[in-house]
């Protein structure tokens, strides 16, 4: 396979015409990791298009400990010589 999108496309095509068991067996014979196959099958069952990449990201907030450290460090620099 060229890349992950090609693999997902191939699995999606097979899932439309074959039973899940045969698809898994086919890709195991092609030395594709079983976990990878199951992740693609789960995406197919959830209706996610094969060409949609997972989006990176997460909470961009600082923890309260990090906020306190930033405030404490800023307070020590304002008006007081160290």
Structural write-up:
With 82 residues, the protein is an all-alpha fold. The protein has a domain at 1-52. The chain has four helices and no strands. The chain has helices at 4-17, 20-29, 34-45, 64-77. The chain is rod-shaped and about 70 Å long. The relative contact order is 0.11.
List the helices and strands and how they pair.
Elements: H1 4-17, H2 20-29, H3 34-45, H4 64-77
Labels describing this entry:
82 residues
Concise structural overview:
The protein has 82 residues and is mostly helical. The chain has 4 helices and no strands.
The counted number of beta strands is 0
Sheet of most strands: none
Please report the number of helical segments.
4
- Give the termini distance in whole angstroms: 61 Å
Order of secondary-structure elements: HHHH
Structural class: mainly alpha
**Strand content of the residues, in percent?**
under 5%
Give the overall silhouette. rod-shaped
Which spans of ≥5 residues are poorly predicted at pLDDT below 50? none
The overall pLDDT, averaged over residues, is 81
What's the helical proportion of residues? 55-70%
Report Rg. 24 Å
Region (Disordered): 49-82
Biased composition (Basic and acidic residues): 63-82
């Amino acid at each position: 396979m060229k890349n992950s999108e090609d693999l997902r496309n191939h699995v999606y095509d097979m899932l439309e015409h074959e039973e899940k068991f045969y698809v898994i067996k086919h890709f195991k014979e092609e030395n594709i990791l079983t976990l990878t196959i199951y992740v693609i099958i789960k995406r197919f069952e959830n209706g996610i298009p094969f060409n949609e990449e997972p989006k990176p990201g997460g909470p961009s907030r600082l923890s309260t400990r990090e906020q306190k450290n930033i405030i404490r460090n800023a307070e020590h620099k304002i008006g007081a010589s160290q």
